[in-house]
Fold this sequence. Notes:
This protein has 4 helices and 5 strands. Helix content is 34%, strand content 21%. Helix 1 packs across helix 2. The chain has a 5-stranded mixed beta sheet, with helices on both faces. The chain has helices at 14-28, 34-46, 92-106, 121-129; strands at residues 6-8, 51-56, 61-70, 75-85, 112-113.
Amino acid sequence: MGEPLVYRGGPADLDGLLPLVREFCDADRHEFDAARVTRALRPLLESDEHGQVWLLGDRGGYAVVTWGWSLESGGREALLDEIYVRERGGGHGSALLARVLTAAAEAGAAAMFLETEAHNERVRGFYARHGFDTETSIWMSRPLGSAAAVPVSD
């Protein structure tokens, strides 16, 4: 059997993609909110402005890459927001990741970043085998908007 088909997702792929995102959320212990996910996927499936969605043919898998901009990277950088492959161990994830890395470079990204859950050592090994290094910086986040207002103290 040859390389799996990896192709760029478009608007017609949304309905087939949502069940895969639900599987990813279950596997990675995240809440799945179909309305939120749909709202986030639509622009990515419609154009390159915010990023790209890649699908793994009939194998059941996808990757989402979003664009950022950084002085440290010298401009555009890519964030591998999600990658999920239903059937592991057959080289399908490697094929998907290789295509995503190539596409990001072709889109002008200087670097690709990703984050993993602390409990997922297996996936960090996968990324290390594909040239990703663990960094010493620590990501922090907080919600934005009126409901997320937090008093600032000195």
